[in-house]
Each structure stands twice: as structure tokens, then as C-alpha cells.
Specification:
This is Chloride channel CLIC-like protein 1. Keywords: Membrane, Signal, Transmembrane, Transmembrane helix. Residues 1-32 form the signal peptide. Residues 332-382 are annotated as: Disordered. There is one protein chain. By secondary structure, the chain is mainly alpha-helical. The chain has 4 domains: 2-61; 80-122, no CATH class; 127-262 and 278-340, no CATH class; 346-382, no CATH class. The protein has 14 helices and 7 strands. A 3-stranded antiparallel beta sheet has the order 1-4-5. A two-stranded antiparallel ribbon has the order 2-3. It has a two-stranded antiparallel ribbon with strand order 6-7. Strand 4 and strand 5 (173-174) form a beta hairpin.
């Protein structure tokens, strides 16, 4: 019994000791977690931390060395190095965005020049201020030596040439210079009027009520179609077809010349010179072919430029002939009416003798009507 009582007491003491140790460990772990969380955010005072420990363990598990609380809040403090890096990254992204926009702008300009319908700077640009160019009608006058007109392009218009200007203004330009400038460099047309008027769309547009091209007729329509269709693609196609047709026509002559050259002694005497090219490596042959192709392309471009200039001159002459005058028309009509009145008045070529014995011309009202045909001869005498 004594041994059992001693073993029971020993077991009870051991159990109580283990319970005490476990309770102390739990309290210490909880205090450590509470202190760590408060340290990460804002430190609490020693008094509140000691109250969290509770009971008789305040002294055992309290932190030595005084207060550890911090009154200052450092959560909004920004590191200068981090801020500098962040600003550098933002600037780099902005520069990349600007470069991307510039590249897209340059690409759209190049594609528009090649005939691809792409918006360009001219499509989105407006005149000075917030007002877009307005459509306007035109006036046409004839510049003569007596009534010379100024010209925005050449200062003074040549005599006997037609000049046009926006309706109600005196900013004249010769019709030939305007049309040639429209064909060579259309971006310089509207700035001559400070981009105030939509000259190209108003005077040369197909759907404009003020279009000058409505007076040119079928011939003008064909010429305009050659120059305007797909950026001149129709003109190039016609030139290619014309060259091929010419080659087919002169093919017998070319064949005869080529055969004579192949059997010529002078041609084969130059074999040491051109034989090296025949047996040259493939890269050299490709280079020679590229040079020949560039020469043919440049020659075709020069031919196209000459033909286009000739067609533009025809168009200018056609506009000079077909465009009606709107300024000075009243004076011309008056002259025409006066000439018509003189033509309508019938004057009988009769003569009479005045006091000096000379014959004078008499009108029909000044003579009597004679029924006797014998007294009146065919020469107007009596």
C-alpha cells in the first residue's frame, strides 16, 4: 500500500509538473506571437504587453531593457532609390509609346504614297484654328494686256490666259498653273490660300457641285481617268501594253538582227571578254541581272514621266478651252448684242449726190420706193 501510495504521489507530481511546463510553454508562445505581430505593425507599450501576458508570469516573460514601442509611423516613408527606379521605368514606357506612335505615323505615310488607302497627316490636319477648310465656288476671268490679273504662283498672269479665284475674292491663279501644281504636288495647292478653302475637293472633286471638270466633256473625262485611276496604274498598264505591242511588231527585225549577231565574226572575236561573264558564278550573274532590271525600271519611269507631263499639258489646254468665263461676261455680251444689232439692220447701198457733187451713202429710210425696176440697177445707182 505504501509503495502504491508513493507511486501515486510520484505520478501525481510528475503529471502536475508536466502540466505546469506545458502551461508555461503555451503562455510563452502566445506572448511571443503577440509581441511579433505588434512589432511588425506598431509597437504597443510595455504596460499593454504585460497585461497580455497576465497573472504571475508577467515578471517571468516580460522583456528586459525598457520600452520597445515606436511612436513614429514609418509606413508612408518612400525610399529615394526605389522612387528613382520607378520614375525611370515610367519614363522608359512613355518614350516607347511615343516611338511606337511615330513608327506607325511614318508607316502610314509610306503606305499611302504606294496607293494603299491609309489615313495620313493631311487627312487629320485642319486649318489654323478649329475651323476646317470650307467648300467654295470659283470665278474665272481672262487676263489681257489691258486688264492684267495677278497670280499667286507666278506673280503676273500671262496675257490671254484664264485665271480662277475663290468666289468673291481677288486671289487669282492661272488655270494652267493650278492644274499642273495639282498634278505634281497637290499638298501645295490649298496652302496658297492659307488652307482656308477646300480647293481640291471643291473644284476638282467628282461629287462637288462646283467642279470645273463638269465642263470638259468626254475627252476630259478620258484624260482625267488616265491620270487619276489608282494613282496612275492605268497609265502604266497602257504603257506596258504599248511597249509589248511595239516589240511584237518589230520582232522580225529583232530576230534577224540577233541571228546576224550570233554568226558575226566580230562578235565571237570578243569571246575572251564576254565569255567570262557567261561562265561567271551565280552571285555575279544575279548582280548583273539586278543592274539590268534597275536600268530598265529607271528607263520606264523616265518614259512614264514624259508621257504623264504630255497628258497634263493636254489637260491644261483642255481646261483653258472649256472653262467658262464668269467675270467680264457682261461686257462680252454687250459687244455681241451690238454686233447683232448692226447685222440685223438692213442698209441698202444707195447713193445720192450732195451739195458738193459727191456721192453719199443713203439708208433705206432716206429713199423712196420705186416700182419701176428699170430705173434701179444692180450697182446701187439710179
Amino acid at each position: 500500500k505504501k509503495k502504491k501510495n508513493m507511486s501515486s504521489r510520484l505520478f501525481l507530481k510528475t503529471f502536475l509538473s508536466m502540466a505546469y511546463v506545458l502551461s508555461c510553454t503555451r503562455i510563452g508562445t502566445g506572448n511571443a506571437i503577440t509581441w511579433g505581430s505588434s512589432k511588425a505593425t506598431s509597437f504597443q507599450t510595455d504596460k499593454s504587453w504585460m497585461a497580455a501576458v497576465g497573472g504571475s508570469n508577467n515578471r517571468l516573460y516580460s522583456i528586459r531593457g525598457g520600452s520597445t514601442s515606436i511612436d513614429e509611423d514609418n509606413t508612408n516613408v518612400v525610399d529615394p532609390e526605389e522612387e528613382k527606379k520607378r520614375l525611370a521605368v515610367r519614363k522608359w514606357r512613355t518614350d516607347q509609346q511615343n516611338l511606337m506612335q511615330l513608327r506607325s505615323f511614318v508607316l502610314s505615310e509610306v503606305l499611302a504614297k504606294r496607293g494603299i488607302p491609309m489615313p495620313t497627316l493631311l487627312d487629320v490636319s485642319t486649318a489654323e484654328g478649329d475651323k476646317p477648310p470650307e467648300k467654295v465656288d470659283w470665278d474665272c476671268a481672262l487676263s489681257t494686256e489691258e486688264d492684267s490679273k495677278s497670280c499667286l504662283y507666278s506673280f503676273d498672269a500671262e496675257p490671254n490666259t484664264k485665271v480662277v479665284a475663290p468666289l468673291g475674292t481677288d486671289q487669282w491663279i492661272t488655270l494652267t498653273a493650278l492644274n499642273r501644281l495639282r498634278r505634281t504636288d497637290p499638298t501645295k495647292v490649298e496652302p496658297m490660300w492659307h488652307s482656308q478653302y477646300s480647293i481640291l475637293q471643291s473644284w476638282f472633286g467628282d461629287d462637288s457641285e462646283y467642279s470645273i471638270l463638269q465642263h470638259v466633256g468626254l475627252k476630259g473625262f478620258l484624260i482625267t481617268m488616265l491620270l487619276d485611276s489608282a494613282k496612275g496604274a492605268l497609265l502604266k498598264a497602257l504603257l506596258v501594253m504599248g511597249l509589248l505591242s511595239a516589240m511584237v511588231i518589230v520582232m522580225p527585225v529583232l530576230e534577224f538582227t540577233f541571228n546576224r549577231m550570233l554568226v558575226s565574226g566580230q562578235f565571237w572575236n570578243q569571246w575572251p571578254t564576254w565569255g567570262r561573264i557567261v561562265h561567271a558564278a551565280l552571285p555575279l550573274k544575279l548582280l548583273i541581272g539586278q543592274m539590268v532590271w534597275k536600268f530598265m525600271a529607271s528607263s520606264f519611269g523616265a518614259l512614264e514621266t514624259k508621257v504623264r507631263d504630255y497628258i497634263v499639258d493636254l489637260e491644261c489646254a483642255m481646261l483653258e478651252d472649256s472653262t467658262p468665263l464668269t467675270v467680264g461676261v457682261e461686257t462680252a455680251e454687250d459687244i455681241t448684242d451690238e454686233q447683232g444689232a448692226w447685222d440685223d439692220e438692213e442698209v441698202v447701198p444707195t447713193t445720192e449726190t450732195d451739195d458738193d457733187g459727191e456721192h453719199a451713202l443713203m439708208d433705206e429710210d432716206d429713199i423712196d420706193v420705186y416700182d419701176d425696176e428699170d430705173e434701179y440697177d444692180s450697182e446701187g445707182g439710179w
